[in-house]
Amino acid sequence: MRRHCILFLESLSTISGGQQVLLDVISGLPDHDLHALLPDTGSLADRLTELGVTCHFVPMARYTLVEKRWTDFLRFPLDQPRLAAHCARLARRIGADWVYANTSRSFIWGALGARLSARPIIWHVHNLLGDSKTLTLLQHVGRWPTVRQIIAVSACAAAQFPLLNDKVSIAPPGIDISRFRPDPSARQAIRAELGLSIDTFVVGIVGDLIPLKGQHTLLKAMQLTEPQLSAVIVGDARPDDAKSYAYAQHLYKIAGERALFTGWRSDLPAVLNSLDILVIASERETGPLVLLEALACGVPVISTPVGRAAELLPPDALFPTGDSDALAGLLNYWQSNRRRLAGVGRLARNLAESHLSQEAFQLQMQRVLSRILEEQ
Q: CB–CB of 136/126 below 8 Å?
């Protein structure tokens, strides 16, 4: 495959699931001239620079895609032409062969910028769009000829675009199984830091403090569990998001003394290793990535039937969305059957090693991108 100049578009400056997938994609493309357009400096720009990516910056207005506020209706149409023009100028200046949008937010103005600069664009879909108007707009833009490929992280992500099947590929992400691995010493260290004994039954939930992640379902379930159970809640309210902040305050009020809020943690492998069980209580997901990370750490997972959970977990590890009673029943069962958890954890690690590695994902992405890039 010949050397290409690729311009990646990203609307966040921090690293969450979708941004980690972007880093994994880029680390598997060492022989290309790579650039990224970001809203600001930060942890993502630092990691991209370490990978040899040239970073460019432009201010981007913050707006929500899930539930619209009146300010979003003002910011969105005003911001798109400015960002599209900036993208087009940058693509021409660096001689980009391809534009690659890594978020739904960047795809709309990125597709317009690609069209203005006569470049093809790839869109990597990480999310399920809860807002029907936004989804309709994205489906329409996806029909443009300049949009050559839509890469979805899971089958449910791809299913959002039933009329674009000829453009959609599915590439489930993997994780670094050398970084995410069983580590008994981390279990002891994190529990000591958090003031939890080695014998305490600890469940955890990881994600932004927003309603669709379902932290409230876990906290309500804990009111129906044995008192020896404690919860570790990893994540923060989203910056500049009043609704997320209000939700976080609600969680603090109902948590009681058995729940610990850690904020976001950069040592997530160690934190996962401190858990007996990871809970995923989300209303909708395309993954989530933490599901794979927990499995790689040998941590059993119980989840709502979202994203890849039904594919990777046995049926008895699933509970209905929002059903705190069902979740409490699963937690009580496993708290009373701790010896079985070790075997479940070993099976989880075996699954990660055989099917969920970062290397397997990168090879798949290399095949997909080789085919796409050489079509030009």
A: no
Q: How far apart are CA 191 and CA 277, in angstroms?
A: 14
Residues 14 and 97 in one domain: yes
- Neighbouring CB atoms inside 10 A of 273's CB total 24
Whose CA is closest to 116, among 149, 89, 79? 89
- How far, in Å, CA of 29 to CA of 333, rounded? 45
For 34, the 3-state DSSP assignment is strand
Is residue 103 in a domain?
Answer: yes
Hey, how many other C-beta atoms are within 10 angstroms of the C-beta on 177? 21
Cα 364 from Cα 48, distance rounded (Å):
21
- Whether 179 is in a domain gets the answer no
292/366 same-domain check? no
Q: 296 with 283, same domain? A: yes
Residues 305, 253 share a domain: yes
10-residue mean pLDDT series, the chain (376 residues): 90 88 91 95 96 96 57 73 97 97 94 97 91 90 96 94 94 94 96 95 94 94 88 87 84 88 94 98 92 97 96 96 97 93 95 93 90 78
CB 302 within 8 A of CB 221: no
Terminal-to-terminal C-alpha distance of the chain: 12
Q: Do 248 and 303 reside in the same domain of the chain? A: yes
**Paired tokens of 23:** 């880093």
CATH of the domain at 161: 3.40.50.2000
Count the domains in the chain: 2
Asked whether residue 142 falls in the same domain as residue 259, the answer is no
- DSSP class of residue 68? -
Do 273 and 363 fall into the same domain? no
Angle, CA 73 vertex, CA 67 and CA 74 arms, to 5°: 140
162 bridge partner residues = none
